[in-house]
Write a structure and sequence with these properties.
Blueprint lengths: L3 H9 L16 E5 L5 E5 H7 L1 H7 L8 E3 L5 H11 L14 H10 L3 H13 L16 H11 L6 H15 L7 H15 L4 H4 L5
Parallel strand pairs: 1-3
Antiparallel strand pairs: 1-2
Length: about 210
Amino acid sequence: MFNFAKTKAVMAQAKPCPADLTHGSPGCVITLECKEGVKLEALRCALSNASPILREALSLKLAKPGVLELPEDNAADWELMIRMIQPGTYPPAAVNWENVERLLHLADKYDMAVVRGYCANFLSRNTSSLTLSEPLLSPTNPLMAATLVCKYCNLPELKPYTDAVQHTLCAVLAPMSSSAGATVKSLVALLKPLTAHERFHDAIAPAV
């Protein structure tokens, strides 16, 4: 199972980075320049420990000394991820239904296991909120939630979390095998507009 405490302990023991490795940034602090030029500060060591992709990027000479340019990424999402990857207090409210999909996308983009784990943990703890009455593209729809874990969290260490989401989807669809006609009709009424959605086939994972 994904171990937040162990991951944070390892990060807390990270040694300070030599200043010259940041190409001008003092000490181990580096500036992240996100979409629309919004800037945030982060520990280079934390970024390197959390993401092999960022570790590689930071080993190269930066176009702007001491600045890592992330023009496609929202600063608000990065602000949350910095709280996740830097040693400190566990931010239980960092992930929510509004940002979980974006955070999973960034976790996948930069191969950030810690962020992926936070998101998987959030989804597994909030399966009671999943319902087919929600819009297809909402992560609170069990079809989309199952797609997110299938696409971004399909790792052995996250299986306890992803199983919770998959089991919820199975429970929601279970009435399809019921002999109660009214129950089946009610479920079909919910599924019909979802499967007819113009983005159903590209938005929902085939495995779901």
